[in-house]
C-alpha cells in the first residue's frame, strides 16, 4: 500500500512534499530547539558580562587597597579626637587665629560655641568676628577650607565697615567635626 501511494504521486508532488516536510522540520527545529538555545546563550552572555564587571571592579579595589588604607590612616588622624574637649577647642581656635594673621584679617572677637553630639563624634563651633578687605577675607575662608580637619563654615554675614570704605566687617560660624 505504501508503494502504491508513492507510486501514484508525481515527481513534482514528491519534491513539493519533501520541501514542505523540510520546511516543517526547519521551523520546528528553529522554534523548539534553536530559539530556546539562543535565549539560554544570551542569558549566559549577560551573566558572564555582569560577573566580569563585578570582577573588574573588585580587582580595581584590591589593586588600590594599599593606597586606600594609607590614605585612610593619614586622614583619620585629623578627625579622631585625641585630646579632651578644651584642648581640641583651643587648638582649633589657635589655628583660626594663625590663619587670620597670615591672611591679613583682623580678628575682633572669637567665641567658642556649642559642642553638639553628632553621629560617631562631636561638632565644635566658634563664632568669629573679622574685619578686612574682601580679598583678604576670601583668602582667610579659603585657608580655613584647606585645613586637613573636617571644618565647615556654617554661616557668614558681612557688611561694609564704613560708608565708602572697601573694608568689610562681619562674622563667621565655623564648625570642626571630630570622631570619637
Helix content: 55-70%
Structural class by sheet pairing and helices: alpha+beta
Quaternary? single chain
What is the CATH top level name of the largest domain?
Alpha Beta
Biggest sheet descriptor: 4 strands, antiparallel
- Within the CATH hierarchy, at the fold level, what is the topology of the largest domain? Alpha-Beta Plaits
What is the N-to-C order of secondary-structure elements (H for helix, E for strand)?
HHHEEHEE
Tell me the span between the first and last alpha carbons.
98 Å
What is the topology, as strand order, of the major beta sheet? 1-2-4-3
Under CATH, the homologous superfamily of the largest domain reads Ribosomal protein S6/Translation elongation factor EF1B
Average pLDDT score: 84
Radius of gyration: 39 Å
What percentage of the residues does DSSP assign to strands (E)? 25-35%
| Shape, principal axes of CA atoms | rod-shaped
The helix tally amounts to 4
Work out the count of structural domains.
2
Could you say what the CATH architecture of the largest domain is? 2-Layer Sandwich
What is the tally of beta strands?
4
Low-confidence stretches: none
Summarize the structure.
The protein has 180 residues and is an alpha+beta fold.
Q: How would you describe this structure to a colleague?
A:
The chain is α+β, with helices and mostly antiparallel strands. The chain has 2 domains: about 1-75; about 85-180, Alpha-Beta Plaits, CATH 3.30.70.60. About 60% of the residues lie in helices and about 30% in strands. Strands 1-2-4-3 form a 4-stranded antiparallel beta sheet. Strand 1 (about 105-120) and strand 2 form a beta hairpin. The model has no long low-confidence stretch (mean pLDDT about 85).
Amino acid at each position: 500500500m505504501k508503494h502504491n501511494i508513492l507510486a501514484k504521486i508525481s515527481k513534482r508532488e514528491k519534491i513539493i512534499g519533501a520541501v514542505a516536510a523540510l520546511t516543517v522540520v526547519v521551523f520546528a527545529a528553529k522554534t523548539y530547539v534553536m530559539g530556546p538555545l539562543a535565549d539560554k546563550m544570551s542569558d549566559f552572555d549577560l551573566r558572564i558580562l555582569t560577573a566580569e564587571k563585578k570582577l573588574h571592579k573588585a580587582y580595581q579595589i584590591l589593586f588600590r587597597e594599599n593606597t586606600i588604607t594609607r590614605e585612610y590612616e593619614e586622614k583619620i588622624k585629623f578627625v579622631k579626637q585625641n585630646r579632651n574637649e578644651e584642648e581640641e577647642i583651643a587648638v582649633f581656635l589657635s589655628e583660626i587665629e594663625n590663619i587670620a594673621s597670615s591672611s591679613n584679617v583682623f580678628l575682633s572677637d572669637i567665641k567658642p560655641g556649642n559642642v553638639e553630639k553628632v553621629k560617631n563624634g562631636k561638632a565644635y563651633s566658634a563664632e568669629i568676628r573679622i574685619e578686612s578687605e574682601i580679598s583678604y577675607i576670601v583668602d582667610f575662608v579659603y585657608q580655613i577650607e584647606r585645613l586637613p580637619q573636617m571644618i565647615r563654615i556654617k554661616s557668614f554675614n558681612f557688611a561694609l565697615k564704613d560708608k565708602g570704605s572697601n573694608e568689610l566687617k562681619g562674622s563667621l560660624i565655623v564648625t570642626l567635626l571630630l570622631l570619637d
